[in-house]
Write a structure and sequence with these properties.
Blueprint lengths: L1 H36 L18 E8 L3 H16 L3 E3 L6 E10 L9 E10 L7 E10 L4 H18 L6
Parallel strand pairs: 1-2, 1-3
Antiparallel strand pairs: 3-4, 4-5
Length: 168
């Protein structure tokens, strides 16, 4: 009986030792995987990600007969046409319309200055009602045309970003 008790104790110790060795082996395998995962990845080429290009359809519509207003409208169309962010479109498609109204500031002194009004509207198509996005009214001289065009381009780009969901 004494031998039997020693034999059972010895078997129990072997079982505990065997399970401990198995646990150590499993932990070693897991740590080996962790060590393999922590190795630095292969270096990737440093290339910039492609940015999403956008080219918004724009129409510039002028109403007025003064020379400064005509110059403003012509230069504005030229800048939109040269820009990568915009394209001048006459097609019936969703687009941003700039409605430009100009007239002489003083009809008795032509060429001195013009009063202008610019309204930005989004139009889904010719048959749909346009959405008013922004407007601007001020006085302009021939010397201020280029600065105003820069400002109008920036504001137009800001409106396209702000209301970009309309173009989708």
């Amino acid at each position: 009986m004494k031998h039997m008790l020693h034999l059972c104790s010895f078997a129990l110790l072997l079982a505990i030792a065997g399970s401990a060795l198995a646990a150590d082996a499993a932990a070693g395998a897991v740590s080996g995987k962790v060590q393999q995962q922590q190795q630095p990845a292969k270096a990737q080429a440093d290339a910039p990600a492609k940015a999403e290009t956008r080219s918004t359809a724009v129409a510039v519509i002028h109403e007025g007969v003064d020379s400064i207003g005509a110059r403003l409208t012509m230069r504005l169309k030229e800048r939109f046409n040269a820009s990568n962010l915009f394209k001048l479109e006459d097609k019936d498609q969703p687009k941003l319309r700039l409605l430009v109204n100009t007239q002489e500031e003083f009809p008795s002194r032509p060429g001195i200055g013009s009063v202008y009004s610019i309204t930005w509207v989004f139009s889904q198509s010719e048959g749909h009602l346009a959405y008013l996005l922004a407007r601007d009214v001020s006085v302009l001289t021939m010397e201020g045309v280029e600065a105003l065009i820069d400002s109008l381009m920036e504001r137009t780009d800001g409106l396209v970003v702000k209301y970009g969901y309309l173009f989708k």
